[in-house]
């Protein structure tokens, strides 16, 4: 059989070869026939009119004498996203930045982008070929909100490169099937209201030697366009934005994909002039940067980047938030803790990098900035600062045989009450001319660790209310407190159970969850564990096993497909009570509108115990502005076992639609709550009532 197959294969190949030869002969015959028919006689060269060199548009090279505006900027150039750049592309820009005294640093992916941005005053992103991740996007958004400046540059001639970064067309595939890099730049630009189009601008009437070398003369009056009369961009994308169109084409400047549109923008300035987007890179490179007024524009861009405009007013800006000198002071205690002495020497490097000096002192100089580090049990030195920032401590110290145990609560204006155990308190005081940071924890070791988190810029798992930040140490009471007899002779509090609160706080758009509030309220009666996805990652099946109830709180964050990872962890849970709560608690809703109040709809349900029929609960302002889910209008009666307990109030968009939906499946022994609002926005007394009601009902699924 094999022999037959081989013979058949050879025969077939011979037939194919003969057929190809016949086809070639026929093709040659046909071509010869066409030549004989159409080209009778000898070929004569036609006369060609000589080109009038003077009629061809030419570029005017006019380099400028650079007049640097000195600055103290720290410019980070991001080259960690498969950027399509040649070695010398950025030399003209780098030279100008260095002439202005700016520090220029390149980020190549070693470490996190967010860590690099803590020191930076400006970020430059040029021709990326790889999308930005959610964490990177959040880092850049936070950076710009803090006053950092962002320069975005894309170029139609710089597609995604898969080969040698110094040769964008190093492989035939790249040359023939180039992949557009527009999605990569838009993954960052869209967050600032900017859209790059996958096109190029051209002008057939007035150009610099080629229809795609477009001359621009219409500019928004701005420091960036000062002394610029004519720019030449060598193949540029068009842009749209919700900001200023910095450079726009005339009526003859067109796009092949935006038919009929004119005055198309090639540069945009948004976000209070902190984000500059350009559609062409070539004009910044040698020798094209010397054409027309390109050189002047490049100098203006360098002035813009070299100026430090960051507002360093938050804990995340540590230690740049300080001015010299800075005192490190231990709060309480007759002797200086050796751990603080050791750590202060380690922290010196971070302060020196920021241009500051840190001094360990017994007490703070009133004229100096200060860091106060101590425990909750002895705060006399900082009591006045705590009070002025809305913090009230109620602390007791129980002396055991081997150690002291600190217990009590922390009252925080605008946040509520949290327990002392397992909590770190950080207060940023700017009430006077000096800057002071207070770091308090149950013991000195935890307080020093908290200060280390400041240096590492790691405030994951923390929540903020104005000047106060509360962080979890990752510890929770090992045993819930015994419920006390109610003074009014009513029913006893619910039986203790284990509750897992998952704070889904790792999404790029949002503000905070209500996990600290749930922990503070429920820890008196339940064994509560808080899991922060930003710190601990998505939980696994093993992580969620063994609890009586679960609260998945997405807070004030926008829904994200990453939430599905949390759902997967519950695949093996046979029976339990689960509550999804947040502005957008599940990723498959489609309608979102602001919510300002709730109205009690069903007082017969245990979730509404303690609330009045029709009672309206006004919500505090959203810290992020992320709109909340609007549930679809319910038609007729709800399904058996399901109740709409709260609806949107009269001051909200789409009033009357469901906000809190409770469902119970007795056969499967599962209870579920979907609450479409951010828990922290409830009034403090309503928070406590709702949380205790929800916990009791959810834990009851196990009864």
What does this 3D model show about the protein?
By secondary structure, the protein is of the alpha/beta class. It has 15 helices and 35 strands. The chain folds into three domains: 74-306, Class I glutamine amidotransferase (GATase) domain (Rossmann fold), CATH 3.40.50.880; 324-475, Chitobiase, domain 2 (2-Layer Sandwich), CATH 3.30.379.10; 493-703, Rossmann fold, CATH 3.40.50.880. A nine-stranded mixed beta sheet has the order 26-25-27-28-35-34-33-30-31. α8 runs parallel beside α10 (444-455). The N and C termini lie far apart (73 Å). The model is unreliable at 1-40, 51-56 and 476-495 (pLDDT under 50).
What layout of secondary structure does this protein have?
Elements: H1 2-38, E1 74-78, H2 91-99, E2 103-107, H3 113-117, E3 122-126, H4 134-145, E4 149-153, H5 172-176, H6 182-189, E5 194-196, E6 202-203, E7 213-216, E8 218-219, E9 231-234, E10 239-241, E11 244-248, E12 253-254, E13 265-270, E14 275-278, H7 294-306, E15 326-331, H8 338-353, E16 358-361, E17 369-375, H9 383-388, E18 391-399, E19 404-412, E20 416-419, E21 423-429, E22 436-441, H10 444-455, E23 462-465, E24 468-472, E25 498-503, H11 515-522, E26 527-532, H12 533-536, H13 541-544, E27 549-555, H14 564-568, E28 577-582, E29 592-593, E30 597-600, E31 616-618, E32 628-629, E33 642-648, E34 658-665, E35 670-675, H15 684-699
Parallel strand pairs: 1-2, 1-3, 3-4, 4-14, 15-16, 15-17, 17-22, 25-26, 25-27, 27-28, 28-35
Antiparallel strand pairs: 5-10, 6-12, 7-9, 8-11, 11-13, 13-14, 18-19, 19-20, 21-22, 21-24, 23-24, 29-32, 30-31, 30-33, 33-34, 34-35
Helix pairs in contact: 2-7, 8-10, 11-15
